[in-house]
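Re: the request from the purification team.
They wanted to know what the chain is likely to look like in 3D before they choose a buffer screen. I agreed to run a prediction and write the result into the notebook, where they can find it.
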Amino acid sequence: MITKVVHGWRVGGLVAYLMGPGRAQEHVRPRVIASWDGQDAGRQPQQDEGGGLELGPLIRALRAPAVAAGLPECDEGGKRGYVWHCSARVAAGDRVLSDGQWASIARELLDGSGVAATGDAGGPRWVAIRHADDHIHIAAVLVRQDTSRRFWPSHDYPRLRETARRIEQRLGLTVTASADGTAAKAPGRGELEKAKRQGRSPARIELAQAVRAALAASDDLAGFVAALEGNGYLVELRRAPSGDPLGYKVARPGDVTGDGAPVFYSGSKLAPDLSLPRLVRAWSDSARGSDAADPVIAARRRVDGARVLVGAARRCEGAEDPDGVAHAARDLLTAVGGWSDDLGAAGERFDRSARPPRGPRGTAGPTSAGLRRVARQLIGRRRMLGVQDDAGAAAVALVVSLAALLREIGAWQQERDRVHQGAAARDAARELSEWAARVVSAAPDPSAARDHAAIVVGPRRRRTVGRGSGQPRD
């Protein structure tokens, strides 16, 4: 169940929209299903002589505490409005719930979020309105009836999310992930429409991909800026009075405002892990140690070691945080993404799984540092060699090992109830495996190619984490 909250000032305008036909006649039989005073469907407005709904009594009843408090119906200098509007929607594959079930859900969401506690007769006035099978809207006026005092619920967004998850589990609905701060900001409606007019992907998505590629290809801020500018992107740094860099922003050529100014996005607005402090930490991590072997061979060894480590962590035996390993694996996926569009798509799919909840904690371990380092060494290898030669077979073996690592990460995420992260890792692993299978089957002699790849890959050895584990040295 997805919940969304917005604030406003005019409860009358909100109710009129929710009880009306909608912008494209999408509101089917709009009706009140629950209310603050328990009248529920009894609060449904009556039809007027013209066949419409007489909304005045309901709106006046909702507004009464705000009127008593002398609150305006217009924006008070940019302050947050006292009208709390929550929409709650179930997944497309979930069953259709009855009005009674939705009424119960509305009360549980209001209570769980701290907006209107169950049994609090002096709490705010609210109504729940339904005009579709899969969702409802709740309109609440954040003014207490008993004191006429305006109030703000504390931490209502995360509390609402956790309440929704309890409802999902109780009713057998599709379970959504908890609010953990890992989701990248999606393009807004205006960005999507602009991209559609231009026949391009949204700038936000393209820029996030470009920033990740520049991060994997560089080892400091100067190299990062040069990599972006070399690919035609606009970059500006924000500096402190001392001259130290504080942040950066990037724009796509040709993406401008109505006044012709470039549309810049800061790194933290592209994704939670693309802020400048996070990039600096990644460069610092990858600077430790060295790998003397061929980059593809070294990368596969690093990936196999990481897989063993995550597997040990699942048994509570690991010595390094798998969250750091997952985040570093994203850099390696960015590097191999240059070999094929399909591999690049797998990296984008893995993106959600790579970001640890509420950001990385502490310094990255040697496994994570090693993955970042080999990713930087691989970033220049843009040509995928044929699987029939040693280099091509080693590259396919690396992708197969990456798929195994991602499956291990997905299982680790799933065991920690990170639904979206686990699914993202599993989906990306499947895409990598399918790509490797296609490459091998397309070889002139697939059976010989598989045998040759097996010779290059060599036999897998059982390893354990700890002293004498056989992991690559730093």
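For the purification team: The radius of gyration is 27 Å.
Please add any questions underneath this entry.
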